[in-house]
Amino acid sequence: MPHLDLNCDLNCDLGEHEAPALTAALCAVVQRVNVACGGHAGDDDSMRRVISLAATHGLHLGAHPGQPGNFGRGPVHISPTELAHLIEAQVTRLATLAAAASPAVPLSHVKLHGSLYHHAEESPDAAEAFVEVLARRFPGVAAVSLPDRTVEAACRRRGVPFLAEGFLDRAYLDDGSLVPRGTPGAVLDSPELIRARLRHWRETGHVLSLTGRPIPLPVQTWCLHSDTPNVLNLVPSAP
Question: Residue 49: how many CB atoms within 10 A of its CB?
Answer without folding.
Answer: 18
